Amino acid sequence: MVSTDEETIEQEQRYRASAYALLAALLRAAPDQTLLDHVATLSPESDSESDELSEAMAALSTAAQQQRPANLEDEYNSLFIGIGKGEVVPYGSWYLTGFLMEQPLSDLRDDLRALGFERNPEIYEPEDHIGAIFEVFSVMITDAVNLAEQQRFFEKHMKPWLTRFFADLGNAQSADFYKKVAQFGAAFLELEQRYLLMRS
């Protein structure tokens, strides 16, 4: 029989992995109707969640109920693609150096190889795209990479720039639905930082 403590830890890991996977899906491409329908059902899973995260989750859920994929395709393109570049640049190297494809990307690739991740040759997006990083971190949690290694990865490749990214996304002129994504992402990351410090 699994102890209560073990059950709690397993539940925490499932929740963390699913939150990262959700953010990855919302940030790597405009959501389709299936993803919107899923987001519309979001609700806090426990009383232990912060008020900020609960409020952000409720706001994101409500926003998803009011959106259509065609509108979000336009919003996503304006925010992240644009003509030349969008309002918000979703790459770690950009935030850390002011340029794309710089040393932070090389460092990330080295650590991904060390963790056993291989680049999909059919995907041309650099690995420091925020959606890719969140997807990787979700897999790390699901694969039970030890929490000390998770914290090291988070501190090196995520913490230095993600707070600024979500602040920029939340303030972007083209953002409507994605303001709620930014609110949820920022609240979740704040809770995640505390969790990793406490558990690792």
Averaged pLDDT, please? 92
The largest β sheet comes out as:
none
Beta-strand level of the residues, as a percent range? under 5%
Radius of gyration: 17 Å
The CATH homology group name: TorD-like
What string gives the helices and strands in order? HHHHHHHHHH
- Number of individual domains: 1
Structural class: mainly alpha
CATH architecture annotation name: Orthogonal Bundle
User: How many DSSP-defined strands?
Assistant: 0
Give the helix proportion (percent range).
55-70%
Examine the coordinates and then state which fold CATH places here, giving the name of the CATH topology: TorD-like
Characterize the structure shown.
It is built from ten helices and no strands. It has 200 residues and is mostly helical. The protein has a single domain, classed as TorD-like. Helix 1 runs antiparallel to helix 10.
Secondary-structure topology with pairs:
Layout: H1 4-28, H2 33-39, H3 51-65, H4 69-81, H5 92-97, H6 103-114, H7 130-142, H8 147-157, H9 159-171, H10 177-199
